[in-house]
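#struct-pred

JT: dropping the chains for the assembly here, can someone run the whole complex?
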Amino acid sequence: MITGPHSMNTISFYTQLIEDEIKNLALPQDPASLYEPVKYMMGLGGKRIRPVMTLMANEMFGGEMKAAIRPALAIEMFHNFTLVHDDIMDHSAIRRGSPTVHKKWNEETAILSGDVMLVLAYELLSDINSDKLPAVLALFNDSAKKVCEGQQLDMIFETRNDVTIEQYIDMIGRKTGALFAGSLKMGALIAGCSNEDAENMYRFGLQAGIAFQVQDDILDSYGQSGIIGKTVGGDIASNKKTYLAIKAYETADSAMRDALNLLASDASISREAKINKTLSIYNALSIKQQAEETREQYYGMAMESLDKVHIAETEKQSLRNVAETLINREK
Amino acid sequence: MITGPHSMNTISFYTQLIEDEIKNLALPQDPASLYEPVKYMMGLGGKRIRPVMTLMANEMFGGEMKAAIRPALAIEMFHNFTLVHDDIMDHSAIRRGSPTVHKKWNEETAILSGDVMLVLAYELLSDINSDKLPAVLALFNDSAKKVCEGQQLDMIFETRNDVTIEQYIDMIGRKTGALFAGSLKMGALIAGCSNEDAENMYRFGLQAGIAFQVQDDILDSYGQSGIIGKTVGGDIASNKKTYLAIKAYETADSAMRDALNLLASDASISREAKINKTLSIYNALSIKQQAEETREQYYGMAMESLDKVHIAETEKQSLRNVAETLINREK
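RK: done, full complex below.
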């Protein structure tokens, strides 16, 4: 257990701690074909942002690390459950450089292993002190529902051409923001903070999550493939409704809108040409700048929410660093 | 709230109560495409056995009906979640005479609506008194994991020819028995019964669940299609590893085993001939009688478990009636 000043723990300290805990996590063994994919998926790595935020929030409010570890793992288990099922729904073959569960095994196994991961998440959560359990469970249920709602909206949006930026922000607020928010509020609740502080931690997470997702959209079109670890322009190639795509469609005049529609529907155009021509339109419309403004706007709101939390500024520094790292990241 | 002698409430009283509660259940509305399938599936009917058992068990031990209703609905929500996902995995088009969720909508929606049903189940469960919450949640987690494990084993068994009766009983004990057991123990725990009684209620449910599933297998091959509401022989036609199929393979001599293998693999044989010839072999081996013996054996064990529960015999009568009705049912 860590007893020194809280702000001294670095992000990599928490990340390593979560990695170690995942490695040592005792999963059921039987049937192996149900639990092997769980182990596989949890072992694929990733940034572990959400559980790190739970641990940090807990420590910020003076909570004991030990009390927050299994709830943090619950959050990471839940997040990985959503990835297993999202990969089936999105027909994705690769996740973090490795085959997705439904490709390595099959769809039936991916559905069922995902299901059991959701149950395992609740099991990890159930270990906390019983006086905290009702509030933590209600929070987790609420975040989990919102993540499902966000994924459903994301899929619906793929079939629509009239999605507004407001609707998009609502969607990523549920799909990404709600679990960031839930992770932080959970850590805070476990430490026993006030309701007001818990709400501001939630808002901080929600707003930071939205900024994080907008940055994700920017990187997919403007990142450097050598850094982001995948080909740039994947979202454009697959006609994904990102912040950039929606903003471009909204800002475009009639001729540019026709050009965007043609690029999206023309099956004969090469992938490279499609991406390059779409990016030219984005550039002409200053879409990247507008996305960055929105990202900064939500980042600013997140920081204001954190400002309102009643603890010493030094205790908030780790979390500010995480948020800044996440939102200004290049991968 | 019911205040009269507990044994006076009939099965149909509890079933109707559950139907009414499901009709009045406030589900989230947005996005409609996520929650409409939940409403649809929950409205398809069915026997509502599991929530009825929760209410009965609770009342047997003198619990207030009101305290058990939302947990009972949690059980039914969970059961329906498993059906939505099982129907995808089993490629089933029809459920209770209506299109399955993935046929009426699509697989993506069925995966995600199923996921949110699992979260909604936990939400319904979370409402109980906080002093009961840890034990009830642990029980629910355990049953939920076992149901996933049982479904996985069921799928694995389809690809194997060496499944033993013991392995089959273990599988149905998880897939069907664990939720019967969990439903009963949950009702009992909510009423505040002793650990010993709770364990015997669990065993009663597990053993009755196994007997119930064996009866299901018998009906699929020997029921009357006009009564069971589907064509007789579906399990045989699809080479399902039922109690009957495994027992026949185990009991058969080498010539009969060859005949069974041929019937299972011969794509040119008509469905009717396949069913009739397989049934002839079952008849020659007295498979139906052996299945009935096993069913009676587990039914007897269930009754013995119920005998050990420390409440007046009159209070147990409703539950005995349910078990008897379920196990000797013709549909």
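JT: nice. Chain B touches chain A through 38 residues (CB under 8 Å). Residues 1-7 of chain B have pLDDT under 50 and may be disordered.
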